């Protein structure tokens, strides 16, 4: 591998449940009806995509722009108290970055990615940090991973990707990367997708897996 691209939510920060809680509560306050499929459907979507989904599928009585601003505002308030960084995540990023160029390819909006980098003092360690809304389509489309590879100056097929969710894994696979899964225990990935990737017990196993 010539570079490593990390997902953010569920890999470096324990935020998948936070996103779900905030969006569900926001939807309930604005006339929406949460569907059994809504949580998984929105994992990996870019901001414009999930905001539109909240309006058209969940029934939130706002415009997509208003829904996006409201949810992101609440998430930013929670991040202001300190992002929910997963144990050991910062150390693993630093260790991997000592051997490879690294990037973040996330479905989070840029403001939350920047908040994470600033809070963890990783801004100078991670030269490329992208939101899928900067790349076009959200995950499972490969756009954000392809853009990350391009910004790093590395062919996608020579990149490793680290993901936790079904849509994230599909995105990285579609980009042609070598994919490592750290399955999210709260939202387990599709077993069929897991069969196509290397599954790690935890993120701390990544450096040895890359070396092997």
Question: What's the arrangement of secondary structure elements?
Answer:
Elements (H helix, E strand, L loop, with lengths): L2 E4 L9 H14 L8 H5 L4 H10 L7 H17 L8 H9 L4 E5 L3 H11 L7 E4 L11 H10 L6 E5 L2 H9 L3 E4 L9 H4 L3 E2 L6 H6 L1
Parallel strand pairs: 1-2, 1-4, 2-3, 4-5, 5-6
Helix pairs in contact: 1-4, 3-4, 4-6
What does this protein look like?
With 212 residues, this protein is α/β, with parallel strands linked by helices. It has two domains: 140 residues, HAD superfamily/HAD-like (Rossmann fold, 3-Layer(aba) Sandwich); 65 residues, Putative phosphatase, domain 2 (DNA polymerase, domain 1, Orthogonal Bundle). The longest helix has 17 residues. It is globular and about 50 Å long.
Helix-strand pattern, N to C?
A: EHHHHHEHEHEHEHEH
How many discrete structural domains? 2
Instruction: Tell me about the largest β-sheet.
Output: 6 strands, parallel
Cα distance spanning the termini: 11 Å
Record the strand order, biggest sheet. Answer: 3-2-1-4-5-6
CATH class identity of the largest domain: Alpha Beta
Beta-strand percentage range: 5-15%
* Dominant shape: globular
Structural class estimated from helices and strands: alpha/beta
Radius of gyration, Cα only, in angstroms? 16 Å
- Helix amount: 40-55%
